[in-house]
From TrEMBL:
It comes from Flavobacterium chuncheonense. This is Signal recognition particle protein. It is an enzyme of class 3 (hydrolase). Belongs to the GTP-binding SRP family. SRP54 subfamily. It comes from the Bacteria. Involved in targeting and insertion of nascent membrane proteins into the cytoplasmic membrane. Binds to the hydrophobic signal sequence of the ribosome-nascent chain (RNC) as it emerges from the ribosomes. The SRP-RNC complex is then targeted to the cytoplasmic membrane where it interacts with the SRP receptor FtsY. Keywords: Cytoplasm, GTP-binding, Hydrolase, Nucleotide-binding, Ribonucleoprotein, RNA-binding, Signal recognition particle. GTP binds at residues 106-113, 189-193, 247-250. Its main location: cytoplasm. Its EC number is 3.6.5.4. Part of the signal recognition particle protein translocation system, which is composed of SRP and FtsY. It is found in: Cytoplasm. Residues 268-281 form the SRP54-type proteins GTP-binding domain. It catalyses: GTP + H2O = GDP + phosphate + H(+).
Length: 295
């Protein structure tokens, strides 16, 4: 994960680690390299710039130049700032409802259906919940089938109404079904489009308003870099979602989305997807991710 970024940051710190006596020129050079590494990883320019400014201020505040191991101190400062940038402590999903309704949003292909299955499986096996999956994609019959396949794989019931073209009704009926059949979590998988458009936004906003979910999650493909951040912003403006799911972190992704998204939408990343299998889901811990990024 993020091998390229890890390599480049490692090289940046070499500048500091290699010198007996550290000068402010060395520190400035290191920060320049750190910034370049972030930009190469597809982190937005302003975020990268603000990041290195904060690191510099901290380095000055902690008298980096006079410490015995300035390289190590700089790594620690960068790690703390990265953790902060990606979010504070890990946050779970809100399961306080009866049933708890979780609405999934995101573009087509982002990994919504796969993640809906992963989350259902996680809640069933790790949290002892009885989830119901709901297929609300009224445009692609294949999407409904895909959710049924996923449901069968993990032994979770899937609610669908293939003839009904009203996603609000389907979602409401599913919640009624859940209430009368003892399901305590309802995961609503919605239709996605290839790009953000008004119709899709209106549709999901209507579903959101009608079912008032405890938790609205935005699913995004981490391979899409800065586009991931722009899409997140568009969805957040309409849905004011509660958390982000970053998928495909097992792929050849550069890391920009993971690093930038929290500071753009001010919502935590809650889970990551790390593969196509139902078990490939991890709770997102910013400090562990920062550790991995720094190698
Ligand atoms: P949706 O259109 O948003 O419902 O997206 P899908 O759930 O159908 O996922 C699109 C493709 O991405 C499928 O081929 C999934 O198997 C794949 N996929 C989803 N999540 C992950 C992940 O975390 N890692 C990898 N490698 N592939 C994923």
């Amino acid at each position: 994960m993020f091998d390229n970024l890890t390599d480049k940051l490692d090289k940046a710190f070499h500048i500091l680690k290699g010198h007996g006596k550290i000068t402010d020129v060395n520190v400035a050079d290191t920060l320049k390299e750190v910034r370049r590494a972030l930009l190469d990883a597809d982190v937005n320019f302003k975020i990268a710039k603000d990041f290195t400014t904060r690191v510099k201020e901290k380095a000055i505040g902690e008298n980096v130049l006079t410490t015995l191991q300035p390289g190590q101190l700089m790594v620690k400062i960068v790690k703390d700032e990265l953790t902060e940038l990606m979010g504070g402590d890990a946050e779970g999903v809100n399961l306080s409802g009866n049933p708890s309704v979780i609405l999934m949003s995101g573009l087509q292909g982002s990994g919504k259906t796969t993640f809906s299955g992963k989350l259902a499986n996680f809640l069933k096996t790790k949290k002892n919940k009885k989830p119901l999956l709901v297929a609300c994609d009224i445009y692609r019959p294949a999407a409904i089938n895909q959710l049924h396949v996923v449901g069968e794989q993990i032994g979770v019931e899937v609610y669908s109404e293939p003839e009904n073209k009203n996603p609000v009704e389907i979602a409401q009926n599913a919640i009624k079904h859940a209430k009368s059949n003892g399901f305590n979590v309802v995961i609503v998988d919605t239709a996605g489009r290839l790009a953000v458009d008004e119709e899709m936004m209106n549709e999901i906003a209507n579903v959101h308003k009608a079912i008032q979910p405890q938790e609205t999650l935005f699913v995004v493909d981490s391979m899409t870099g800065q586009d991931a951040v722009n899409t997140a912003k568009a969805f957040n403006d309409r849905l004011n979602f509660d958390g982000v799911i970053l998928t495909k972190l097992d792929g050849d992704t550069r890391g920009g989305a993971a690093i930038s998204i929290k500071s753009v939408v001010n919502k935590p990343i809650k889970f990551i997807g790390t593969g196509e299998k139902m078990e490939a889901i991890d709770v997102f811990y910013p400090s562990r991710m920062a550790d991995r990024i720094l190698g």
